[in-house]
Amino acid sequence: MGQQTAPPAGRGGFGNAGFVPNPAYDKEPPQLPDGMKAGGVLIFSKTSGYRDEPAMQASNAALAAIAQERGWPFLVTENGAVMNEQQLSRFKVVVWNNTSGDTLDESQKAAFKGWIEKGGSSSGSTARAAIRWVTTDTRRRPNGNGWSIR
Prior knowledge:
Blueprint: E1 2-4, E2 17-19, E3 40-44, E4 50-52, H1 53-70, E5 74-77, H2 85-88, E6 91-97, H3 106-117, E7 121-125, E8 134-136, E9 147-149
Parallel strand pairs: 1-5, 3-5, 3-6, 6-7
Antiparallel strand pairs: 2-4, 8-9
């Protein structure tokens, strides 16, 4: 039902917490679990800035446990190449979990933006504010709960 991919080499920061010195953009998308139903949860925790490994591991595990308990298909990954039209279409929500810095290239940003515009949902925890190209935009929805992606 769910899967967690290992963090790519070189993304461990300095020890258990630290900064990732050189952002890298992923080109090869991760393998989705065989038979993964549509409507799942994508738990995305890539960093290219500050990285708090213990917080990421704990919250990834907690989010995965919640999804599993509720019977929701899920994927935990740090691979930004998952942000493509085909793979995003398998998910109902993307949880940006302790992400930091520049995590997506321009085509990945465009794919995520298109997915949001088609009705996808996004939520974030802690370092999500470090994603510079996502800003609140109160003009899109009357209740002020809209997101604008530059």
